[in-house]
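Researcher: Let's do a round of design. I'm pasting the structure tokens now; please hold your answer until I've finished.
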């Protein structure tokens, strides 16, 4: 758990550093063109890694809980957008349109993989089921999230022209499928260089953040977003997270009557949104718009979900200790959770 905190604390600090750097020294002219081109390659590389990392064989181990897996997908791609749309409608003109679009965008993204599994393990949940749910969410999200973003946000924010669909196929879908196809041959190599690939993964996302916020600075968008907007946005995101956590908990235990181990999976996997998938996807879906502001809600929500999930996981773990003291946390941890 401490290692997970340390990893994300450093990562979040680096993300903030990239935003500040973009505000002070934004990429301009030829420099922006070069950085943007490198970022495009980085996006394809990221989705290649996502495809190569997801093991369909391991994910199948959790397919026995069919109702649970469907519930996670419905929470991720139906419940979340509905709650987000309700909040967006209630806000009216209180927040800039780009931020409203960003709130809706984060609701259509897939779940996380590593943190969902890690927190499920800590909470004594069903780890194989969490692996299956998170993996399925990411596979579905590559195809569904851009479509949902276009359908729910609409207007000029989302470009769904043929060129954008081509970019989605070339930068997102094709690398993901290639990674999946090559996994049997490269999985061992990736495992041997896991730390190096992790640095490359996070470094690519940091570059994408810098390019996105450089564009926003060049467009002067930050003159339209003030401290009051950020404070209100944080409150809205807190309400969004709390609502989904409460609803998924109620559905899991009272509607579906799942066992505790499965209900934990629904709550953790169904309430997460992937920063790693959402940032690169946004640069394709929102090409030419205020990307930096649009992804701002996702970056704030990312930190919120980690903090809240950490407290929940520890609470569930203590409760499990009280009811089943003979069960050890170490016994329930998996290599995936320990390295997350």
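Researcher: That's everything. Go ahead.
Model: Designed sequence:
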């Amino acid at each position: 758990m401490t290692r997970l905190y340390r990893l994300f604390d450093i990562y979040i600090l680096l993300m903030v550093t990239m935003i500040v750097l973009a505000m002070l020294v934004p990429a301009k002219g030829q420099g922006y063109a070069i950085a943007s081109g490198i970022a495009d390659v980085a996006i394809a590389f990221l989705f290649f890694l996502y495809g190569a990392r997801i093991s369909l064989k391991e994910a199948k181990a959790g397919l026995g809980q069919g109702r649970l897996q469907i519930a996670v997908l419905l929470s991720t791609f139906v419940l979340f957008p509905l709650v987000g749309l309700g909040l967006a409608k209630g806000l009216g003109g209180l927040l800039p349109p780009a931020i409203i679009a960003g709130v809706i965008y984060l609701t259509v993204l897939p779940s996380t993989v590593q943190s969902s599994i890690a927190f499920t393990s800590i909470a004594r949940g069903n780890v194989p089921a969490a692996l299956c749910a998170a993996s399925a969410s990411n596979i579905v999200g590559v195809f569904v999230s851009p479509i949902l973003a276009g359908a729910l946000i609409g207007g000029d924010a989302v470009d769904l022209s043929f060129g954008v669909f081509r970019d989605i196929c070339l930068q997102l879908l094709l690398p993901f499928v290639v990674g999946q196809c090559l996994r049997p041959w490269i999985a061992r190599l990736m495992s041997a260089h896991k730390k190096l690939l992790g640095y490359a993964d996070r470094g690519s996302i940091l570059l994408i953040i810098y390019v996105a916020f450089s564009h926003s600075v060049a467009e002067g968008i930050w003159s339209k977003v003030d401290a009051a907007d950020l404070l209100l946005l944080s409150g809205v995101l807190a309400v969004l997270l709390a609502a989904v956590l409460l609803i998924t908990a109620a559905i899991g235990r009272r509607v579906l009557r799942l066992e505790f181990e499965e209900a934990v999976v629904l709550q953790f996997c169904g309430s997460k949104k992937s920063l790693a998938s959402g940032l690169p996807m946004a640069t394709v879906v929102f090409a030419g718009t205020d990307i930096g502001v649009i992804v701002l809600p996702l970056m704030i929500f990312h930190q919120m979900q980690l903090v809240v999930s950490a407290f929940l996981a520890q609470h569930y773990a203590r409760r499990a200790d009280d009811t089943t003291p003979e069960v050890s946390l170490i016994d329930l941890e998996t290599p995936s959770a320990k390295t997350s």
